[in-house]
Design goal:
mainly alpha; Serine Threonine Protein Phosphatase 5, Tetratricopeptide repeat; 0% strand; globular
Length: 153
């Protein structure tokens, strides 16, 4: 009989926690409890859950559960895009197309739109489903630490 590594068990439990937090976040989001959803998506993102990155980007872009914060939205989209997430790549193409927080750059917009699989005239990304070395802006760090300081995040 082959023994299971204790490390495997710990990693398995951590992944269950990330999925559970994401599911709780989705439920809160669908109930329009955006602040609660934001908390769960941050917990899930801490465990490198790419769909949580997307939800965090959307929530910061639209001001759901938080103030509108385009630099933070861009950070989360970029993090997910580096994991080859097509929705994130599409969102980045929109940032560059319309100059949302970043300078308009049609070449970058086209690059991300092509990566997303969207046609140049398409307005919706093709849906899809870890960690990058980019850093969030300082306002993100301040908001992040004040929200989650009580739970050791």
């Amino acid at each position: 009989m082959k023994k299971t590594s204790p490390l495997f068990f710990v990693l398995f439990c951590l992944s269950l926690g990330a999925d559970s937090a994401y599911q709780k976040g989705l439920k809160a989001y669908q109930s329009e409890e955006y602040y609660r959803a934001l908390k769960y998506f941050y917990i899930s993102a801490r465990h490198h859950n790419t769909p949580a990155y997307i939800k965090l980007g959307v929530m910061h872009e639209q001001g759901q559960g938080t103030d509108v914060n385009l630099p933070t939205a861009f950070y989360w989209y970029e993090k997910a895009a580096k994991q080859n997430d097509r929705q994130a790549q599409y969102h980045l193409s929109e940032f560059y197309t319309y100059g949302k927080w970043v300078q308009k750059d049609q070449a970058k917009a086209n690059y991300y739109r092509q990566l997303s699989g969207a046609d140049q005239n398409e307005t919706q990304p093709i849906a899809s489903e870890e960690d990058s070395d980019s850093q969030p802006d300082s306002s993100f760090k301040e908001k992040f630490s004040s929200i989650f300081s009580g739970i050791g995040f």
